[in-house]
Amino acid sequence: MPSHLSKQDATAGPVRRDPYEVLAISRNSTDQEIKSAYRKMALKYHPDKNSNDPEAADMFKEVTFSYNILSDPDKRRQYDSAGFEAVELESQELELDLSSLGAVNTMFAALFSKLGVPIKTTVSATVLEEALNGVVDIHPLPLGVPICRKVEKQCAHFYSVMITEEEARDGFVCRVQSSDKSKFKLLYFDQEESGGLSLALQEDSAKTGKVTSAGMYFLCFPVYRLDHTVNSIAAAKDADAAFFKKLDGFQPYEITELKAGTHVFAVYGDNFFKSASYSIEALCAAPFMEEKANLRAVEAEILAKRAEISKFETEYREVLAQFTEMSSRYAQEMQAIDEFLRQRNEIHASYTTAPPMKRSSNKRRNKGSIRETKEDAQVRDKKPSTRDRPKKKKWFNIRLKVDKRKPC
Fold this sequence. Notes:
Blueprint: H1 7-11, H2 19-22, H3 31-44, H4 54-70, H5 73-82, H6 103-114, H7 125-132, E1 138-140, E2 147-151, E3 156-163, H8 165-170, E4 172-178, E5 184-191, E6 197-204, E7 206-208, E8 211-218, E9 224-226, H9 228-237, H10 241-244, E10 250-252, E11 261-269, E12 276-284, H11 289-349, H12 359-381
Parallel strand pairs: 1-3
Antiparallel strand pairs: 2-12, 3-11, 4-8, 4-12, 5-6, 5-11, 7-8, 9-10
Helix pairs in contact: 3-4
Region (Disordered): 350-396
Protein name: J domain-containing protein
Keywords: Chaperone, Coiled coil, Membrane
């Protein structure tokens, strides 16, 4: 089996091993086989169980890194064709176990999550190990009877559901929701021959309206789930990617139907600091025939739209590149035109025999004209004083000559 090494890996830094070799699986392994191998190895090298073992910590990171490549169909296909060079290493995010972070790191993780930074969390190794050893309390969950409870952070409540062959053929649904918008995970476990439970499916809660919810649908035909983290990470890198990558996380469930018998589900408290309030309900899909048909139809349309959007992205990127090029040329052409017009004005101004005007004379002339204007204004505004005014004779001091001889 050839090992894919990038140029960067070959020249500097630690050499990355083949993800298939890390997970000890073949290149033809199914998605379920990849997930099962990852769960077992992650539990084996988990920091909770190997707190003072740096080699185990490195192995845990390598196992998680390999799983992040092989669990994504696109990245797995890119790696199979061109190795690590085709995989965007910076986009590989690790799943965090909150129980092993510590108080300070948990506070930072909670802050980033509050700000909208996508943070993937994983189920505590303690919970997984207790389930694998078969030492968890399992409560019965009757069909059609909702149960409301509160689970502590990094803890889980286990439920068993019994279904008949007829109910298995009709389909089965398990849904959990929280009116408090608490974060949680809905888990499904396979029963091992040893009597223990191994994690098979995991669904993170997501906001849907005024609640957070998660569901698993076993309807005897392919049903899809939507990983919102993929779109969030793409949106953080590129605004346009928020649109074009929105359906990249739309992937089919690994299990499409359940057989008759007892099945175990769990609700895991995924909050950072507080418990999670929830309501869990298990249903037979027989009364929901119309909903099954509608779900199948709309998911087929979503798949068609995803293929259509993929083609549209190529066209959009080409047009956007042309628009960017044209915008750059527009600015350059505008600058060139302005420069030509400036040169033209200078040539027009050179057609004269008059000596060039000195700036200093202009300043003196301007200053003289300003001084004259001020003096004129002062003269206009100046009012004559009382001394300068001519004396006027008062009317009652005027001497009138009157001829007394003539009668008035």
